[in-house]
């Protein structure tokens, strides 16, 4: 059963009002990993990748979306990552991006954090 508050998680990520909290929201969405969680990440990326002036949580959101895609055998991230997709456009226009922007790096990060969350849940 999916926990209550699902809509609230998506709204908090989309609001981007709390500095540095986006990683936690992305890990939560990836941990639950439902099609609805994937949809929330798609909405976030569709909105924020159109804003090259913002460098919020686009990279970890992409990692979370790819994580869910792998688990659900989906391809939601493909529309962003393809040639001429919003991911490439955002990278080209986001001159302030200095960290690595390889989506595989953030997929790996999300995978490790989700494993940590699972370990913590099992320890309870």
Structural features, described:
The chain has one domain (6-123). The model is unreliable at 1-6 (pLDDT under 50). By secondary structure, the protein is an all-alpha fold. The protein is globular. The protein contains 7 helices and no strands. Helix 1 runs parallel beside helix 3. The two termini are 19 Å apart.
Shape: globular
Low-confidence stretches: 1-6
Helical run tally: 7
* Tally of structural domains: 1
Fraction in beta strands? under 5%
Descriptive tags:
mainly alpha, globular, disordered N terminus, 124 residues
How would you summarize what this structure contains?
The protein has 124 residues and is mainly α. Helices cover 67% and strands 0% of the residues. It has helices at 6-15, 22-32, 35-48, 58-72, 78-81, 86-93, 103-123.
Write the topology of this structure.
Blueprint: H1 6-15, H2 22-32, H3 35-48, H4 58-72, H5 78-81, H6 86-93, H7 103-123
Helix pairs in contact: 1-2, 1-3, 2-3, 2-4, 2-7, 3-4, 4-7
């Amino acid at each position: 059963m999916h926990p209550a508050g699902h809509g609230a998680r998506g709204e908090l990520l989309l609001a981007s009002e709390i500095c540095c909290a986006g990683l936690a929201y992305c890990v939560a969405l990836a941990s639950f990993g439902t099609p609805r969680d994937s949809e929330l990440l798609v909405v976030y990326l569709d909105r924020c990748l159109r804003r090259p002036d913002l460098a919020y949580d686009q990279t970890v959101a992409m990692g979370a979306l790819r994580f869910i895609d792998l688990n659900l055998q989906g391809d939601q991230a493909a529309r962003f990552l393809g040639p001429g997709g919003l991911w490439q456009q955002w990278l080209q226009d986001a001159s302030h991006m200095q960290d690595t922007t390889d989506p595989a790096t953030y997929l790996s990060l999300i995978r490790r954090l989700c494993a940590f969350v699972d370990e913590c849940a099992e320890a309870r």
